[in-house]
Please model this.
Amino acid sequence: MILRINPNRMELLRLRKRLALAQRGHKLLQDKLEEMMRKLLGLLKDMDTQKTDFKEKTQSLLKDLLYCRITSAKNNFEDALSKIDAQVVLGVSTRRIMNVKVPEFEIKELKIEKRYDFFKTSAQLDLAVAAAPEYIKSLLRLAQLFKTLEILSFEIERTRRRVNALEYMLIPSIQDTIRYITQKLNEFERGNLVRLMRVKEIVRSH
Model:
């Protein structure tokens, strides 16, 4: 597609500069895209590891709670759960991956107080409560990875669209326009040369 401009030398020079800038921008965006894809693959591996860790902790915690529920009266079990007080203070900051802001979660304070009657519940409940902090941390790490992947995936898609727009639309349009202007200028020069030759012949004939 040829851009709508006047075919003159000033426009030709301007377009050549614009083409060089677009090609340099395309190269930078392509490098950024490749690096973000590499980071994304690394995060996906971390996600798989973290999902496995979280799954194992979840299964262990549910196993302890289920054992406690089976070995305790329903009222005692529910009463014990209602008397577990948890307090979590969460800090949220950001870091950059290829100049893309992603969140970082940090547990600043985590307290779990057991106020239930130890004689009315199984020891497995104590184990479940003791494992709760690591379970919460695992869940938080998983949430951080998930959000990071979501943000990075969006940025990769946006960068890919920009790369494609430069590669398949803007750069070819500028190149086509440069060829068009060059052809027009060559035609003008040939036309001027023909006119000069005619003038020269007329002058000689007189």
User: Anything to note?
Assistant: The two ends are 49 Å apart (CA to CA).
